[in-house]
Amino acid sequence: MPASDKKAQGNGCRRFFRKRVDQPDETLAPNGWQVVYTGFVLILLCFFIMLTSYASFEQAKVMQFTEAFSDAVNIFSGGQSLDEGKTVLSPSPEIVSKESPTARLIEDIAEFAGENDLSDVELRVDPKAVVMTLPDATLFDSGTASIKAGAAPTLDKIGRLIARLRCRVRIAGHTDRKPIRTAQFPSNWELSTARAVNVLRFFLEKSGIPATRLSAAGYAAFQPLPGESADARQRRVEITFLTHELEAGGDA
Predict the structure, then answer these.
(1) What span, in angstroms and rounded, lies between the C-alpha atoms of 224 and 5?
(2) Quick one: CA dihedral 116, 195, 152, 136, positive or negative?
(3) CA pair distance 174, 140, nearest whole angstrom
(4) What is the CA radius of gyration of the chain?
(5) pLDDT digits (tens, 9 = 90+) for 118-147
(6) Residues 6+ apart with CB under 8 A from 218
(7) Residue 114 and residue 78: Cα distance in Å, rounded?
(8) Interior angle at CA 62, CA 60 and CA 66, nearest 5
(9) Between the CA atoms of 178, 182, 184 and 187, what dihedral angle is there, to the nearest 10 degrees?
(10) FRET partner for 50 with CA separation of 20 to 30 A, picked from 65, 112, 242, 248?
(11) Which of 155, 129, 168, 144 is nearest to 252 (CA)?
């Protein structure tokens, strides 16, 4: 092959390869690494958002538990026991905020009971009330509704407490299941109601509490204490401070 032909062929090959190298394939996307990097950053962002949401959820649960625990134990300094004897406050069925009117009412009643040596009184908290329980033997002789003379000091103290609070009060009489049939009390309905009314009348006459704040009811043996079977425990008078009316702006 002549030298001129070889030279021409060599120049053609160089032009071909130069074209392949100098002109990149248009099917390849320019700067493809940026697409990959952007996708990776978005995945990391989603991952950290998910971690943050889980962390916030757990923190909220911890804060909720801490607040509930603090409210439960800080209503009374040193726990919920008031003093030696029967004057105790049982656990509340619902968490009550320490700043609520209900919590302040609980504290006032418990503090008053402890300071005034109401050793026969028991306190418990219902969802919408604070219940003060007195055994019937403290107030009445068996089968009667007349308040004993020795019960007057206890009722005087409770009357002072009711007078200084803003909530309405319901007085309820309870008996055991033993039947009673006398000329004055044909059944336990009459006996329990008469006892509640006599306690109410004592507060009206001795403590000067407005009649609009008091009510009385008799339940005979049909509202027993849960888990209690002893007749002596069932025979009782309950003085219920209606906290939901206090929060709604009850009478002063």
Answers:
(1) 122
(2) negative
(3) 12
(4) 40
(5) 877 888 887 678 899 999 899 999 899 999
(6) 172, 173, 189, 190, 191, 192, 193, 194, 195, 196
(7) 14
(8) 115
(9) 40
(10) 65
(11) 168
Question: Which domains are seen in the chain, by residue range?
Answer: 3-56 (no CATH), 79-247 (3.30.1330.60)
d(CA 121, CA 88) in angstroms, rounded, equals 8
Question: Tokens in use for 30?
Answer: 């320019």
239 strand-pairing partners: 132, 171
Tell which phi-psi region holds residue 225, choosing left (phi > 0), alpha (psi between -120 and 50) or beta. Answer: beta
pLDDT tens by residue, 152-196: 999 999 999 999 887 899 999 999 989 999 999 999 999 999 999
Which tokens go with 44? 């990391």
For the question of whether the overall pTM of this predicted structure is more than 0.85, the answer is: no
Residue 110 tokens, joined: 């418990």
Contact 97, 103 (CB under 8 A): yes
| Helix (H), strand (E) at residue 174 | strand 169-174
CB–CB of 234/176 below 8 Å?
yes
- Pair of tokens at residue 116: 């005034």
| d(C-alpha 164, C-alpha 167), whole Å | 9
pLDDT digits (tens, 9 = 90+) for 103-112: 778 888 888 8
10 Å CB burial of residue 65 (0-12, 13-18, 19+) is: exposed
Tell me if 133 sits within 8 A of 121, measured CB to CB.
Answer: yes
Q: Say if residues 126 and 93 touch (Cβ distance below 8 Å).
A: yes
